[in-house]
Amino acid sequence: MTHVVTENCINCKYTDCVDVCPVDCFREGENFLVIDPDECIDCAVCVSECPANAILYEEDLPEEQKIFILINSELSKKFNNISRSKEAYYDADKWNGIPNKLKFLKK
Ligand code: F3S
């Protein structure tokens, strides 16, 4: 089991989560972050840092977000390491809470 970045991160990418991760398990795409499931130690400190509430424990994922287990796993092999927070994605506050953003995910 691991923690998973879910849909609401898309087009928000606040990156606050990155600064508290003790094992640098976040990977960065253009408009989304993922957690490398092979690196995550399930400490959960990132969960409360996310202004978009986008990080969930795998077992707590609602049905429609379970696809993000696979997305985190696959994209963690492709995205680059990120270990310091940076400016949020353009118009992040506008996108926070907008449903059905999966179609906007840039891989
Ligand atoms: Fe995404 Fe939240 Fe981190 S929006 S980049 S999971 S702080």
From TrEMBL:
Its cofactor is [4Fe-4S] cluster; [3Fe-4S] cluster. GO terms for molecular function: 3 iron, 4 sulfur cluster binding; 4 iron, 4 sulfur cluster binding; electron transfer activity; metal ion binding. Pfam families: DUF3470 (PF11953), Fer4 (PF00037), Fer4_4 (PF12800). Keywords: 3Fe-4S, 4Fe-4S, Electron transport, Iron, Iron-sulfur, Metal-binding, Repeat, Transport. SUPFAM superfamilies: 4Fe-4S ferredoxins (SSF54862). The keyword Methyltransferase does not apply. Residues 1-30, 31-60 form the 4Fe-4S ferredoxin-type domain. The keyword 4Fe-4S applies. Ferredoxins are iron-sulfur proteins that transfer electrons in a wide variety of metabolic reactions. This is Ferredoxin.
